[in-house]
């Protein structure tokens, strides 16, 4: 697996392919193509994106006969964590509180989601001065 500190940043297209790989890894490029059928991409586009992900270390490829088999090296949780960290730095100057405040003002949360968020906040250790 990829070291969490070295998680590669992914483009939107790479996220789409990674989700398809995570759905059923190991898989072939044809499997990925079927899973992203609504994208309208050609087989060659999927292969190009898989190669980029190999180059980034997010996916590994091995041969089984004449068939390339792809397997996720980057865990979904690692990718999400890296993407959120990047967003925090770019858009919120690294402030998690600012991100939460923004989301609370602009997004609707169900009562269940609010309760879960409150529970998570309550579980956070107090900051010491």
- Supply the CATH class of the domain at 4-76: Mainly Alpha
Question: What structural class should be given to the helix and strand makeup?
Answer: mainly alpha
Mass-distribution shape: elongated
Looking at CATH, the homologous superfamily of the domain at 4-76 is Winged helix-like DNA-binding domain superfamily/Winged helix DNA-binding domain
Number of DSSP helical runs: 6
| CATH structural fold name of the domain at 4-76 | Arc Repressor Mutant, subunit A
Question: Explain this structure to me?
Answer:
The protein is mostly helical and 129 residues long. The protein has a domain at 4-76: Orthogonal Bundle (Arc Repressor Mutant, subunit A). Helix content is 57%, strand content 9%. The protein has a two-stranded antiparallel ribbon. The longest helix is centred in the middle third of the chain and has 17 residues, at 76-92.
